[in-house]
Amino acid sequence: MIGNLFHYTCQFAQEGIFLCYSGPTSHDVLVSTGNSLRQYLEENSVDKKRYYCIFSVYVELFENIIRYGVDCFGENLCQKRCRCPYGIITVGMNNDHFTIKSGNIIALEQKDKLKKYLNTIKAMDPQILRDYYRDKRKQTTASDCKGAGLGFIEIIRKSSQPITFSFDYIDDYFLFFSMTTVI
Amino acid sequence: MTNLEISKTKTTPEILFNCSTNELSIVGESFPENTSEFYAPVFEWLERYLNSITNQVVVVNIELVYFNSSSSKVLMDLFDMLEEAVQDGKDISVNWRYDEENEMAAEYGEDFMEDLEKLPFKLVEI
After folding, report:
1. Distance from the CA of A11 to the CA of which of A170, B34, B83, B114 falls in 20 to 30 A?
2. Closest Cα of chain A to B67: distance in Å?
3. Which residue range(s) make up the domain with B79?
4. Residue B30 in contact with residue B13, Cβ under 8 Å?
């Protein structure tokens, strides 16, 4: 195990990852890891605009995990949705780009809707996306939405490169959803 | 009615709604654990307040350095409520206060401004 951790740490260092959280997610974890992120950005004199873009994407990704992730580590937890869904999130800096990656477990039936939605908003040009965001903000929130339903749009608007995402097979019930954002 | 005073926390702004000076302010950051729960008393207070005023001059100062997307939705609902009151003849204006270095806050202000027709909404650099 110690060997593995060393291996992970080396890999993180090679990729410029300075922050990684893996485990049960909650708002408290978001706040404390978010503070570490802010401290790092301040110490590295990242300009205000970028600072808030990075922090904003971090918060939205983390909140998505808390709201929509499920916990399926261990068979007992498979039976019901857990209050602290499992999630992993990393932030790295490389060649003046910040990369935020997030991963969480979702139920198989969440995939199609999520994939379609992400592809739709990913294809929009910035002006159309801005109008879509404003339209959506004016509407009443959909019932299956635990937030305002604006998180992914916010993430795409803040990123400097197109987002990428993937779904990895876990078993017949769960998938691992991961997303990469570059700022 | 009494003033609404909510102290700031790490994830929620300071909210001071004063019904004797008619100055309402929201200052800080906003990414509460449960956004609708946090803002529910704010909307309740505001509804009572808007019903109670007649020709008072109301100034709303918003100075949020950071807010998440669900707070953005709440702000829109808040501005919609104020806009409705303006359409009913109330004298309300909003100052969207932002730091000149915080371009993002300025852009958000512009987005809100474009979505409001009747509510006077001013961008104020601080």
Report:
1. A170
2. 8
3. 4-125
4. yes
Its pTM stands at 0.92
What DSSP designation does A116 have? Answer: H
What's the total number of domains in chain B? 1
- One pLDDT digit (tens) per residue for chain A, 183 residues: 667 889 999 999 999 999 999 998 999 999 999 999 999 999 999 998 999 999 999 999 999 999 888 875 654 544 555 567 889 999 999 988 999 999 999 989 999 999 999 999 999 999 999 999 999 998 876 555 566 689 999 999 999 999 999 999 998 989 999 999 999
- The Cα of B55 is separated from the nearest Cα of chain A by a number of Å equal to 28
How far is residue B89 from each of residues A151, A168, A169, B2, measured CA to CA in Å?
35, 56, 58, 23
Interface probe, candidates B70, B71, B113, chain A, greatest A C-beta count within 10 A: B70
**Domain residues of chain A, as ranges?**
2-182
Architecture of the domain delimited by A2-182: 2-Layer Sandwich (3.30)
CATH of residue B109: 3.30.750.24
User: What is the ipTM metric for this complex?
Assistant: 0.93
The CA-based diameter of chain A, rounded to the nearest angstrom, is 52
